[in-house]
């Protein structure tokens, strides 16, 4: 058994590989048998989620079986195809994501067990093999573990006067995880509007703002600091929880003047969220 990293941060992927070495050798005059009664089980560590990309392949990368993950039992069960010779080596590969609540210093363990039947001198012999254990240690880190997939201000009726549109609906929160050994220097999040709000070729520049501490910060192609953490010691901070529903509250907003010229349309853009250790 092997794992692609010996240390990992919460939210990172880990790739595990169980290598099955046959060891069967037949005389030249005797054809090889197929694998019989193969049962392979890989227990999944509780600190892993989103088990995916399960492959059962031979040394040439050809699929020789299937793997199925069962969430209630937290195990992967492997089924080989019926025509695989028991002289053939193969491997089982899967990927999992370290849970964001995994604690620094904990270890993620991977292993596997295989049962198979072999014909030896005319008799069926059941062989059980258990892999070595592999370990990945959870280390501290600073990362964005979630960010809004969409942010929607809904239908806006422009009244040709100064107005602010607050309280957008969003899918997924903007959450920062800080599990470093020392968090005293804090961290900073910035937002970059990759292009102006655009609909049918018309651009609305300067209308997307972020209000922070009673100041309106215009979002543009230049990164704008929208949140500063001064080293509070919190392991997770949900920035979207600070967004309010009034013009005076913090958060993402649209802001218009009486002189704006707008056309009907579905305006959209893309925001890039960036995280940096320390203070701006």
* Order of strands across the main sheet: 1-3-8-5-6-7-4-10-11
How many helices in DSSP terms?
Answer: 0
Shape annotation: elongated
Structural class: mainly beta
Strand content: over 45%
What would you report as the Rg, rounded to the nearest angstrom? Answer: 27 Å
Order of helices and strands: EEEEEEEEEEEEEEEEEEEEEEEEEE
Helix-residue proportion: under 10%
Weakly predicted, low-confidence segments: none
* Biggest sheet details: 9 strands, antiparallel
N-to-C terminal Cα separation, in Å? 44 Å
Overall number of strands: 26
In round numbers, the mean pLDDT is 91
Can you tell me about this structure?
It is a single chain. Helices cover 0% and strands 50% of the residues. With 280 residues, it is mostly beta strands. The strands form seven sheets. Strands 1-3-8-5-6-7-4-10-11 form a nine-stranded antiparallel sheet, with no helix packed on it. A four-stranded antiparallel sheet has the order 15-25-21-22, with no helix packed on it. A three-stranded mixed sheet has the order 2-12-9, with no helix packed on it. Strand 21 (208-212) and strand 22 (215-218) form a beta hairpin. The protein is elongated.
Please outline the helices and strands.
Elements: E1 2-3, E2 7-8, E3 13-20, E4 36-43, E5 48-58, E6 63-70, E7 75-80, E8 90-98, E9 107-110, E10 113-120, E11 123-130, E12 134-138, E13 142-146, E14 150-152, E15 163-165, E16 169-171, E17 175-178, E18 187-193, E19 197-199, E20 202-204, E21 208-212, E22 215-218, E23 224-229, E24 236-238, E25 251-256, E26 271-277
